[in-house]
Amino acid sequence: MRITVLIDQWSDKLEDHDPVADQVTAALLEGEHEVSYVGVHGDLRKLVDNLERSKTELVFNLSESFRDHLFGAVGIVGVLDLLELKYTGGGPGEFYMQQDKALTKKLLAFDKIKYPEFAVFSQDSDFETGGNLRMPLFVKPLRQDSSIGIGKDALVDNFRDMMKRILAIHDKINDAALVEEYIDGREIYVGVLGNSMPTAFPPIEIDFSGLPEGAPKIMSSRAKWNTRSAEYKGTKAVLADLPDELKARLQKVALDAYRALRVRDYGRVDMRLTPSGDIYVLEVNASCYLEKDSEFATSARVNGMSYVQLINEIVDLAVERHGIR
Ligand SMILES: Nc1ncnc2c1ncn2[C@@H]1O[C@H](COP(=O)(O)OP(=O)(O)O)[C@@H](O)[C@H]1O
Ligand SMILES: [Mg+2]
Questions:
Q1: Does residue 143 contact residue 101 with C-beta atoms inside 8 Å?
Q2: Sequence ranges of the domains in the chain
Q3: What's the pLDDT band for 128 if we cut at 50, 70, 90?
């Protein structure tokens, strides 16, 4: 099959991109596909031209942004739809539902899936939802990902600090602020693969034990990206050591959330597990990060699926969903 890997370029040079694109390409070549790249770098006309010229049968979508548009990822798949291209992962509607974390919760509520109680503070209006939130609270941008705008001061225990964070998110991130009850517990990610019969992979846990004394146990942006920081060095993803019953419950919640958010092909559900055994969904990541050593690929491997198999299975799922051949 002729597959085009769609990637975010960090400059106008095609080779300037996340290594995940090369890993996916290598896996697709091993799957005996014909593979080409198209880079996304802020020029919509060029993007459309390159996509049309590629004569692709399927786009493997790894793009997550367009310039600094808040809805860049949503827009890119919208363009793919309008060009009538077939692609892996979510479309604009699905992406929007998981990007807006308050909307996600409203969808989870219908299926009685637990989430942290919350309030939204928009830049241009009063509360959207809110009520009896109990301190401590966690303040984050409503529609960002990658822990953008999440530092150790995201965790607040008084009104003044909460307001400070809300205004900082309005002014510096230019997004609405989402204030949630802080869930003190273990952080668990469950990868899910599939459409009509999705499979949940073994839970991965974030081990916070290497964090400095007193540091909040959260995946801040430093913990995710600043490789030289104490937060990065002090956190690691490990296979969660859990009794079978709890593991099964986490996988069930992840599958329910995956379905509620209409995730297509693959995704990852981020959760917190309290000491009393309550499971709260923090967010659902449709088309999550596919790097070889990511939580998702690691949990697939633990479940007996090699990286090459995983990437080619995502293609097969998209092919089946689109009814190609
Ligand atoms: N309500 C919460 N309670 C406890 N920790 C939270 C809460 N919300 C977010 N966090 C912490 O912040 C991290 C990032 O939040 P998340 O909602 O997953 O945003 P992102 O889309 O940036 O990954 C989580 O992995 C978790 O460590
Ligand atoms: Mg997350």
A1: yes
A2: 2-89, 117-181, 184-322
A3: low
Q: Do residues 268 and 285 make contact, with C-beta atoms less than 8 angstroms apart?
A: yes
- pLDDT exceeds 90 at position 160: yes
Ligand 1 in reach of 182 Cβ (< 6 A): yes
Nearest to 43 by CA among 16, 83, 12, 17: 12
Domain 117-181 has CATH 3.40.50: no
Q: From the CA of 178, which ligand is nearest?
A: 1
118 in contact with ligand 1, CB cutoff 6 A: no
Side-chain-side CA neighbours of residue 43 (13 Å): 13
Looking at the domain covering 2-89, what would its CATH class be? Answer: alpha beta
Mean model confidence pLDDT for the chain = 95
Q: What mean pLDDT do residues 163-192 have?
A: 97
CA dist 80 to 89, 269, 318, Å? Answer: 12, 25, 14
Q: What percent of the chain is helix, strand and coil (3-state, nearest 5)?
A: 35, 20, 40
The CATH number assigned to the domain with range 184-322 reads: 3.30.470.20
Going from the Cα of 236 to the center of ligand 2, the distance in angstroms, rounded, reads 14
